[in-house]
Amino acid sequence: MNHALLALPTTAPERSVRTIRVALAGCGAVGGQFLALLRAQSASIAAARGIRAEITRVLVRSTDLPRAVPLPPHILTADVESFLRSPADVVVEAIGGIDPALRIAHAAIATGRGFITANKALVAEHGAALEQLAARHAAGLRFEAAVAGGVPVIRVLRDAIAHDEVRSIAGILNGTTNYILTRMETGASFAAALADAQANGFAEADPSRDLDGRDSADKIRILAWLAFGTSPSTLLPERRGLLPAPDALTSAAAAAGGAVRLIAETTRLDGGVSAVVEPVLVSGSSEFARTAAQDNLILVDSAWTGRLALAGAGAGGRPTASSLLADLLDATPRPPRRDAASTPLRGVADPRAFRWLIATTAPPPQARDFSAGERIGMEDVLPHAFDRRTHVLTEPCTRARVDALLRRIHHAGFAADWLRCELKQ
Ligand SMILES: NC(=O)c1ccc[n+]([C@@H]2O[C@H](COP(=O)([O-])OP(=O)(O)OC[C@H]3O[C@@H](n4cnc5c(N)ncnc54)[C@H](OP(=O)(O)O)[C@@H]3O)[C@@H](O)[C@H]2O)c1
């Protein structure tokens, strides 16, 4: 067979490697990075999980475009029907939209194959029906990449707190609008911020689904489905996006001393489940205001676990590809852990240099002598700054070196407390 082997052979001699055939629909920002990630991690995946992913076919619109990972021409196809007949154990979809993504999902699931998607529109509209189909055909349906890019919120709702009673979920779920809003906080107009987002790959050529809140609405429908069991196709959030007057929104928020964030929220109520997407005026010191650029933040409130905050890269090819790969690995049985004797990594001393704030009972001249003895520079020495101790701020040095300084201070009969200093210089 003449398939592309993107994976390298395993280096772990004791583990046999099983080949998983993967057909990939879409090789753009997400699909291209998925291939790059598979290639970069192939040896470690083979060693740790005993799997080698073999890419059998890649569906694109135009077979002539350059790709993130060079592919043999026979792997690429623009013919959906031929793609549907690809030899594959798992189909990964990163095309977007409903057609042909839905046809691909049906074909994969109805033939008992795993189907993994990054497509929130598909999952929001057809997720429940696809899940029923998957149950009938003993096929897997996974969509971690469809909500919040690299933030593993689907796993948290499906696995970590599946036993809990979720009360509400609120989040910044759209990286494009968040990027635009935070650029506007530094003085950019909406038009300039949007152009900047497009130039940096954080907004598509047609950003209307992001700006009018449909993208966030799709994601909150999926989260409500997992948290409350409401069918996503029937839950229609009240929705207001940033349009029509984003400049006025952000000016009003700034005048009120806060910030605007596009927040999607779903809440369990006595009579059912509410869902809303709208721009919200948040306090400048809130977690939402501090979620900047293309990042996402999701706050989950549940009866037993309490409040969970998940934050990270909500968009971008690399984080989203990482979620696709996690789903691919989940779709295959996990082998037993290797015993510690064969674990290749051992603990080592932290080599990074930090500044340290040391509070010691040693008077300033002696504190200086001790630092000089260990050849650690001092940025500041504050005699009796806060209490009767001397406070020393060191220049960056490793943990091992500051340990030596502390030993020297203790050895001379003085007490010393210390803090690693993360304050900006
Ligand atoms: N980009 C992100 O940060 C991000 C984050 C989370 C989730 N997602 C989701 O991931 C999916 C893919 O997004 P993306 O940003 O990677 O999109 P993209 O860069 O536009 O890539 C889309 C890929 O699909 C192919 N394609 C599109 N329509 C097709 C059709 N009708 N037939 C065959 N191939 C077709 C394109 O082919 P050509 O290359 O030949 O045009 C391209 O390779 C979407 O569902 C999106 O919502 C994206």
Distance between the termini: 59 Å
Helix content: 25-40%
How many helical stretches?
14
Computed Rg = 26 Å
Main β-sheet, spatial strand arrangement: 3-2-1-4-5-6
Mean pLDDT: 92
What is the tally of beta strands? Answer: 17
Percent in strands: 15-25%
Main sheet: strands, sense, barrel: 6 strands, parallel
Q: Outline, from the CA principal axes?
A: globular
Uncertain residue segments: 1-5, 7-13
* Structural class estimated from helices and strands: alpha/beta
Could you say which small molecules are bound to this protein?
A: NADP nicotinamide-adenine-dinucleotide phosphate
Quickly list its features.
14 helices, 36% helix, binds NADP nicotinamide-adenine-dinucleotide phosphate, single chain, 425 residues, 17 strands, 6-stranded mixed β-sheet, disordered N terminus, alpha/beta
